[in-house]
């Protein structure tokens, strides 16, 4: 069970992660309901651990690089990624295209594996997410093909790049 202190730390970190614009201590305090001095101490501790960083504008904060490292380690050890890597390599070798594996996570698609095409185009995937609702709505994502879990049809719906995205089953 988490202590009260751990609950507050997790809440402040989640608020920073969910903020549309980098929040400051006052906004974090107001949003969390915790006193400013408490939030200030939590922010300092999170910064010391590299979990959040100052953005350089108005004493605001964003997610830190250590979170990317932790997330990367987590997904590298994913049973799904390990189980799929051979099939992904076969697909990449057959198509000569870059192959991505993404999983749904809290309304977004999080990329957990990428096998490069033999072609020169490169894309950094570790910090990429794709909003599932935007994907279902057919927004354009140049150069990518992606599958979105769609419970209404009981399978993944594949979106292909083109003049307009078009789903196919």
From TrEMBL:
Gene Ontology MF terms: DNA binding; DNA-binding transcription factor activity
Taxonomy, superkingdom: Bacteria
Keyword Phosphoprotein carried by entry: no
One GO biological process term: negative regulation of DNA-templated transcription
Gene3D superfamilies (UniProt xref): 3.30.450.40, Winged helix-like DNA-binding domain superfamily/Winged helix DNA-binding domain
Keywords per UniProt: DNA-binding, Transcription, Transcription regulation
Domain IclR-ED residues, every copy: 66-169
Protein name, per record: IclR-ED domain-containing protein
Organism of origin: Paraburkholderia ultramafica
